[in-house]
Amino acid sequence: MATHTSDKKKYLVGIYDHEETVVSAVKKVQNDGVKVDEVYSPHPIHHIDVYIGHPRTKIPIAAFMFGATGTTLAVTMIVFMMRIDWPMIIGGKNAFYPPTMVPVSFEGTVLIAALGMVATFLVSNLMGPGKQEFMFDRRTTDDKYALVVDLDKNTKSIEEIEAILEKHGASEKPRVVER
Amino acid sequence: MQVTSAIREPLVTGGKTMHDITEDICKRVEEKPSMSWLIAFGFSVVLFIIGCLSLASTWWYGIGVWGLNKTVGWAWDITNFVWWVGIGHAGTLISAVLLLFRQKWRTSINRAAEAMTIFAVLCAGSFILMHMGRTWLAHWALPLPNTYGSLWVNFHSPLVWDVFAISTYLTVSTVFWYVGLIPDLATIRDRAKLTLEQNPLLATDTPAERAEKKKKRRPIAAFAYGILAFGWEGGSKVWARYEYVALILAGLSTPLVLSVHTIVSMDFATSVIPGWHTTIFPPYFVAGAIFSGFAMVLTLMLVTRVVYKLEDYITMEHIDLMNKIVMLTGSIVGVAYITEFFIAWYSGVEAESYAFINRAFGPYWWSYWAMMTCNVISPQLFWFKSIRRNLIWSFVLSIVVNVGMWFERFVIIVTSLHRDYIPSSWVYFRPTIYDVGDYVFSFGLFFVCFFLFAKYLPVINMAEVKTVLNSSDEQAKKLAEEKLKH
What we know:
The complex is a heterodimer.
Chain A: E1 10-16, H1 19-31, E2 38-40, H2 48-52, H3 59-85, H4 98-124, E3 145-150, H5 158-167, E4 175-178
Chain B: H1 18-30, H2 35-61, H3 76-87, H4 90-100, H5 110-131, H6 158-196, H7 207-215, H8 219-228, H9 236-269, H10 281-307, H11 316-346, H12 350-361, H13 365-377, H14 385-388, H15 391-417, H16 433-456, H17 462-472, H18 474-485
């Protein structure tokens, strides 16, 4: 008889009521030997990603690269149009006149940097119009904090991890959720 | 002697919890439209339709229907353009500049101010398109290959810089606004989806409660906000990236907001018209833009505060701080008016001196003195704390400032043009019904957009207000005071 094994991973979800409690829980739970996978919250919590051990985001590097691309594209466009393809001498100014290139080059830099960075943000988070979300608990966009433990990445039993989450302030009995 | 600064006033009052914030803001979106909203929206639609009729006539007959002539080639259209662009500066200033300066009070007003920015820039853009006369050829302003093989646009011209500046500003402001909206859209999505799903934690519901919940099911909202929320889940990794995106967008938008009105001012400053040919224009225009933008934010937020009962989020402290910025920027504008008058005399250039004497004492003296009264004298009333914290005064003065700022642009544009170097061509510009009608169009467009925003999107940035709740609500302030006493 063929046996069906679920491809879904199992997570244990602890719910916390306060920002301070969840921040301290992340540190203490990890000190107790449980690897925290993620914390979901209704607002940003500074440095919690560092406590969890997420690598630092490379978004600023992407923004810089896109900005540099924007500057290069804008300057190339102006030089090509004003100097190479159809040289225009207007008001006695040289066709290649750097001060007049500043505004459009600046706008090009900002435009490409902003659009590129936001596109990187959406792609890196796999977000986009109509993307189906997976919420461990929908109240985490309201007033609750969810501390999620990937059971596959931990050697302790569910009961042990449950006890640790509750010991460090979980306001409800932790639940197992499949994703 | 040790000096301890006073504890600042709370930014969220009424002892709100995070759930209260969600409830207070989301219920405006979830409830059926109120009668007051329907009346206000209906009135805006009427304005919009009247404006569209005027606009259709303008397109059909051409811009010859306006009061323009050979001497006054720019008048209401450009006045309205600069006025709306100026108003469109406060949103990004509040979101970007105040974010960089870590001003927490911006969190309650940034969402509506950003929305206002986008709608104001749309209105401004509509005047550029109208002014072209043949709007369907608007793409000629873009650097596109054309049939003349190819004669490109002139990158030495500030009008071309304007095309890039305004379109970049509109795009970046919209992106900034939408990225900020995503977490709140997810909140509305989850509230709607919770009405459809049986939350395992609520499995103890009685049958009667379940029947009640069934009535409250909101599948359309769940679907629509589900699409708009982009699959937001709110994990710490995403929040960390989000914060970087917000910070860098703020860093990019700050010089952008300064560049936009600088470039708008260069439309005038790089010309040789007396009254326009002045190097003070860029800082003076930027200060004026912030001045009028904040005044419009005040007008809108004071109304929204009352209609949506948001007194606990838009507190007197917020109004006080906004009024202080209006007073500061109004004073900068006042100094700029006096400086340009002084320099016109000091330069010894006859035509320049005449342009300014003509502004103050010529046929358009009434517009000059309306500008001076509204922009220089009225904001000085905000030196009094009792006036800064009075809702009626704040509302009236915010409108007075915007009237004054419209007159400022009218004075700069029309009074500088109507008496040129040939006295036989001097004229007195009068707007026609189409000038007025096209201006009405922009009001219709603005308010239709704003009322739709106020009804269907969260007017206050819930996620950001929740962030400041722990440090800036009444409870936090009490704790801080107690700490200070010990």
